[in-house]
Amino acid sequence: MDEKQEAKFIRMTQTPIPTLVCSMAAPCIISMLVTSFYNMADTFFVGMLNSNSATGAVGVVFSIMSIIQAVGFFCGHGSGNYVSREMGEQNIEEASRMAANGFVCAFVLGSVILAGGLLFLEPLAILLGSTETILPYAMSYMRIILIGAPHMCASLVLNNLLRFQGSAIYGMVGITAGAVLNILLDPLLIFGLNMGVSGAALATIISQLVSFLVLLFQCSRGGNLRISLRNAKLTPFYLKEIIQGGLPSLARQGLGGLSTVCLNWGAGPYGDAAIAAMGVVARVMQFANSSLIGFGQGLQPVCGFNFGARLYRRVKESYWFCVKTSFGFLLVIAAVGLCFAPTVIGVFRDDPTVVAYGTTALRLQCLTLCVNSWVVMGNMVLQVVNRTVPATFLAMSRQGIFFIPAVLIFPTVWGMLGVQLAQPVSDVLSAVIAAVMMRRFLRELDGMEAAL
Length: 452
Description:
The chain is an all-alpha fold. It contains 17 helices and no strands. It has helices spanning about 5-15, 15-45, 50-90, 90-120, 120-125, 135-145, 150-165, 170-190, 195-220, 235-265, 270-310, 310-350, 350-365, 370-385, 390-400, 405-415, 415-450. The longest helix is centred in the first third of the chain and has 37 residues, at about 50-90. It is globular and about 60 Å long. It starts with a helix and ends with a helix. Belongs to the multi antimicrobial extrusion (MATE) (TC 2.A.66.1) family. MepA subfamily. This is Multidrug export protein MepA. It is a multi-pass membrane protein. Keywords: Antibiotic resistance, Cell membrane, Membrane, Transmembrane, Transmembrane helix, Transport. It holds the Pfam family MatE.
């Protein structure tokens, strides 16, 4: 362990929890907000084409992007959780080997998505919820997005590895660089070169490539683990650790993509305007939740280091600090969303039907936004301490176990209102599950602390 790594260990295990978590969370929150902002940039600029079909296509392809992100987070969290615990135990060489394995695993899986997606492009677009009018736009957008799948997956691994080492600010630089470029390229390619939705997709993968290169460079600075392909040996042991640590993320993100498909199916009978509206709301709520997720991402390296160092009291303290702080923050965001929902939806699409559908959905989701603090923070803690089964179940609950049946069944009873109610109902049920699981885990920590 060199001097910079030794200083990092001392900071992660001795700094007061509120100060440490906030310092870890701030760059994560910025990264998540920036990522969500430039995800919304495509929706914003494509909306200026004045086509519900084009706007709907962005919402349809959002699900395949969620799957790409799911794979990236699977490898990034799977390797990163292990890395943080090993660094907490000061096993730097072992942490370096896992970092290389996570990187290679992501690139390989991203290449599989690229090949499979291009081979079945049209049936995949239909499966994701494209109508006849949306299909041509969705295929144009998706074809280009798939080309960037390998380096998009690898970028997420690099960003998460930096974060789990307590160097989230380095990851923030890489994410921000790509985001700024994406926002600049969107209008140039969509309107300047008359590429339409294809221009939005091209802007996204170019910006993601720039982020990848910057993040790879950042891994060689500040006492961070260098990515050396010579350390990459995908043995059963490392694959098992990646699967155990990353399965909750794969479930959460992967079901996020599947839930978007089901959402499109549920909204489809009500026309392109309904699909476009729910796609806009999904992006807006992703932006609102990005601060929460960023805060949770700042919590994970703190829990990982201190759990590895057997400082269980600090693990509990950091969890409760994050739950209370994030609940208060989400309360403010929810109030703003309730008051200004029509204005927010109108920014992306000024079609009256889109605004009407979107306003109701956004307000209903704001009513239950605060309870996500228990769901996200509980999931983050359980995942980083390698409680795979409860973490995966909790990750699946909000976007899968509760949401998918709701969005498919509720519309048969309440029509479009059923589509709009599905997410709020699943949020409440997931929060109840999270509270029960974390109560059990915190009691387990008390027993482990008493045994020291």
